[in-house]
Each structure stands twice: as C-alpha cells, then as structure tokens.
Amino acid sequence: MIYLNGEFMPIEQARIPVLDRGFIFGDGVYEVVPVYSRHPFRLAEHLRRLQDSLNSIKLVNPHDDPTWMRLIQHLVELNEPEDQSLYIQITRGPAKRDHAFPKQITPTVFLMSNPLTTPPQQQVSEGVPAITAVDNRWLRCDIKAIALLPNVLLRQLAVDAGCAETILIRENEFMTEGAASNIFVVKKGILLAPPKDNLMLPGITYDVVLELAAANNIPHEVRRIAASEVFVADELLLTSSTKEVLAITRLDGKPVGTGKPGAMFARLHKLYQDFKLNVMRTS
Ligand SMILES: Cc1ncc(COP(=O)(O)O)c(C=O)c1O
Description:
This protein is an alpha+beta fold.
C-alpha cells in the first residue's frame, strides 16, 4: 500500500497528472526513513531535514510533524514487512509548464514502503569495492532533491565497474560524499568526516556515527578531507540509512589499508547495531 494526496491505496491504483512539476522539472524533495521492527528510526531528524529541504526550495510543508508521524505510522501498519524502507516525496504539484513557480499550487504528497534490504552478511564481513569520480553536481547538494540525475549517472559508473559506490572528488582537491552515501576516512586511528556544508547531504546516519564516536571516546575530526588522504586511508567507511555502516575495502581497484574491514569499522558497526536495537527497545 502507498499514500498519495490524502488516500491510502495499492500502488497500481496510484495516478499523478503528467504535468506534475516533479515529472516535468524534478521540482521536489524526498526522504528515506528506515523502519526497524515497525519503528521508524530517527524520524524526528528525517522530518527536520525534510523541512530544511522544503525551505530551500521554497515549498510550504503540507503537514505538521504530528500529521507526518500519523501518516507514516499508518503506512507502516498497512505493509507486511517488519523492517521497511519508507520513502516520502513532495513535489510542487501539477501546473502548466513554466519554470517559474505557479501562483497557486497543490503539492503532490507521496509515501511508499519497500522491504528494507540491509547489506548482506558477506558485504558486512568483507567490505565493498568503490571507485572515485569527479563530483560534477550542483552547489546545493545539501538539499535532498528528487532531481538525482547526476547521482544516478555517478552511481552507475560504480555499477558498470562492478563496484558498490562512487566516492566523489570536488575540484580535483577534496572528497565530498558518495553518490548515495556519506564517506568517512580513517587514518592513524582517527575518524575523519567532511563538514556538513552545501556540497554534501547532511546524512542522518552520518550524524549517528559521529554521535557514537563522541560518546565512546573514538578520536574524530570534522574537516575538509583532501583527495590525497582518501587514497592513502587506513580505512574507508560508507554510511546511509539503508546501507547503515559498511567498509570500503577496495578503491579504484587497489586495496584500502589491509584490504579487509578494519578495527574502526568493526567498532562503529557494532556500536551502530547496538544503538539501533536499543532505540527500538525503548521507543
Ligand atoms: C547523496 C547522498 N549522501 C548521503 C546519503 C546518506 O544519508 P542518510 O544517512 O540520511 O541516508 C544519501 C542517502 O541516500 C545520499 O543519497
């Protein structure tokens, strides 16, 4: 079951007008919320980021947080799996095609649930390969915009190379994030994270990992990470709501560090899993 503009229905029955600005311009924003044992994880934080994205594209939030929470909880109940990946999309709605905002808008609100597929055990224990590519996206990567063509093309580069992710390098100088994930670098026991600025998506999982590092006395620094540091990293970690925390063990065909998931990965992966279970138990 999905939710579209006030109604819950099977996805086969969902229809939107072809002039929806989401379809014509990619004029909209989205969120992906992982749901564990029917509990949305970090929902307040996802809704806050959704609000930030809406503010950035000057679209009024169609619902307040309690309404979002009710809609989301109901959709979770209507779907079978205990663990779900909940997708929220809001567009500026249908209008005669013109770049400028229409005077009157009716936003399109769409929610769907898919089974949550977290990485298979083999990827967790062995890590995944990645490639690097030039970050050729725009300068508002902090907005979770549905217009994802650059990310789509960059992610496909990884798939074509038999890899799991593309790590993005801006201006030949510094690392921003992955095509669909945030990236951490580990060097000499220190966890390095790029700063949350306009060049990366402020990941919810990224925040959790940094909170866990701070709470567990894991040395960490948030600062710009030079491309050269990525290539000599002891470990590389990838984070996202659906991939959680994964080790990148090969980069551009060469081993990262020992070529096996390292001590920092093992520690943060365990902390993340424990944290998740704890949150679920107490929510
Ligand atoms: C470009 C990009 N960066 C980072 C992330 C990770 O964000 P989160 O941890 O909130 O899923 C995503 C998630 O899909 C993404 O698409």
